[in-house]
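Hi R.,

Here's the input for the zinc ion complex you asked about:
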Amino acid sequence: MFVVTQYIPDQDGCLRPKVPTVGPCEHSDGRPCRIFSDHDRERKTGPCYPIRVVRCRTHNKSFTLYPPGHVPHGRKSVGNLAENGSSIFGLTGTERFKGTIFDAALDADKQLFWPLENGDFHVNPNIVTQANYLNRSKELLGIQPDISDEQRFIISHILMVSVTFLLDAANRMLGKVDLQTQGQIIREILEKIPPFESSLFERFVAVGTYLGRWAHLHVWDPVHQYLIPSKVAQFYSLGTRASPG
Ligand SMILES: [Zn+2]
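And here is the predicted structure with zinc ion in place:
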């Protein structure tokens, strides 16, 4: 299960999560959740940023608490969010993607290639990291080679970019394409993504959920003590219900 919550610095400056009082299992059988912190998973990047794994003893489910902007199996954020999880307003164009996994593509587009060797690759990104982030960016945008045109159609709805544009971009990615061109294609799509009232992060999460990369996102609101299912399902069903005409 995939839960995003705020991480707040403790007295030692280590980031610690606001632990939800309920899990995504809360409506499964009418019994109240009992949430316990199970363990902290140390991450290779950044000191003092362990990721908390919690467990609901009532429903016997574990889930990991990710910081805002982060998705499972990734060290770098996919969405540019404030530390409290709110959207950052006032950014335009590709500025909206600075500090995220898309940096790899925006750099490649400008022929800025990350170093071949850069010490410990867990800490310092290198060219392999950059290529890896380019591949993950393609997945979030629906232009990787191994999905169908129908899937690209749904993803174009989720991201609100034209399906013809996305299909064309996916075609241009086929075969041997150098890093700079890959970066350019990704940058062109990022520029086409319209400004949303809802967060870009949730849109990218919706793509991953639709492709089965991770579960549905739930976001913990510590002020109101609600676990809110992301509007992911809404974007997703809008796409799947779309009919001709
Ligand atoms: Zn539960």
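One thing worth noting: The radius of gyration is 19 Å.

Cheers,
M.
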